[in-house]
Amino acid sequence: MDRDKLTFIAGAFIFFTIGILAQPLMSQDLSLPVLYHSNDDSFLVIAHRGASAQYPENTMPAFKGAVEMEAEMIELDVMMSSDGVPVVFHDARLDDHSDGKGLLKDYTLRELRTLDVGSWFSEQYRGEKMPTLEEAIEFASGKIALNIEIKTEAVSDELHGGVEEKSLELVKKYGMEDHVIFSSFDYRALEHLKKLDPAIPVALLYNRSESENMSPLELVRKYGVDAFNCSYNQFKKKWSRELKEHNIPHFIYTVDQPRRMRRLLSAEVSGIFTNKPDLLKEVATEFQEKE
Ligand code: G3P
Ligand code: MG
């Protein structure tokens, strides 16, 4: 055999071996957000609507607070303005968490940006503006992973031009595609996201009344998603075992009491959404030291 042939065969062998060995790592990377900071304990501290016990929820101060508290991920809620811009806000109505009135979806971005979304929480935050999703992603890029929850009110039947496609475009614009996980109670959004980009990590938000008695694993498989998000009250400890066996990350919300945090830590859930990331970090560290 001549030298060229031998070099070719050796090269092909090395290429395929590396490919096979790297496979599990690559597929894992595709289905879970890559964290910027992690203590490698395979447990995620997720700041629910930012550090929302100390700052007005879903605002830039709440997101900055979450980074300062060293949360590993920020969860935020996405709605759409009447002129089709994704904005960060939880409620369908403006009344409770801003000085506006009525449905958010009836206002243009320009109108929404004149609202005060801080003073309902404290005078200190009077004049705080509703963030656009772009502003939040730009801030998070290079700093902290995001769970982008698409609110049901923002979802339509259309695959193109809707909140999912626009949000995905923003994620890609800021190079955040490996550092986000999308989620929604509206399963149309999950299907749209996976059609638009099968590699983008997506979690199903569990709702007992819509689960048709399916187990978490069955639901995850049915919708072809990567992770399972569930409220503390609906979550059953035994689900954790099954999800773990199948390597399905599962994240539980919204937990601010240390006793509940410890209960979930002992069930080995993948992460907890909390309004108090500083407290969760403390409880998790203490729990891990005792283990
Ligand atoms: O994404 C977890 C949690 O935020 C879902 O409920 O109502 O707080 O958006 P909600
Ligand atoms: Mg939410």
Notes on the protein architecture:
There is one protein chain. With 291 residues, this protein is an alpha/beta fold. 38% of the residues lie in helices and 15% in strands. It has a single domain (31-290), classed as Phosphatidylinositol (PI) phosphodiesterase (TIM Barrel, Alpha-Beta Barrel). The radius of gyration is 21 Å and the shape is globular. Helix 6 (187-196) links the parallel strand 5 (180-184) and strand 6 (202-205). SN-glycerol-3-phosphate binds at residues 48, 75, 77, 90, 149, 183, 205, 229, 253-254, 273.
Q: What can be said about the biggest beta sheet? A: 8 strands, parallel, barrel
CATH topology: TIM Barrel
Question: In terms of structural class, how would the helical and strand content be classed?
Answer: alpha/beta
- What form results from the Cα inertia axes? globular
Pfam family, one: GDPD
Domain GP-PDE: 43-284
Protein name: GP-PDE domain-containing protein
Blueprint (SSEs and pairs):
Blueprint (H helix, E strand, L loop, with lengths): L2 H29 L12 E5 L11 H9 L4 E8 L5 E3 L20 H4 L20 H8 L4 E6 L12 H11 L6 E5 L2 H10 L5 E4 L10 H8 L3 E5 L5 H9 L4 E4 L4 H9 L4 E4 L2 H14 L1
Parallel strand pairs: 1-2, 1-9, 2-4, 4-5, 5-6, 6-7, 7-8, 8-9
Antiparallel strand pairs: 2-3
Helix pairs in contact: 9-10
Bound molecules: SN-glycerol-3-phosphate (G3P) and magnesium ion.
Organism: Fodinibius salicampi
Protein name: GP-PDE domain-containing protein
InterPro entries: GP_PDE_dom, PLC-like_Pdiesterase_TIM-brl
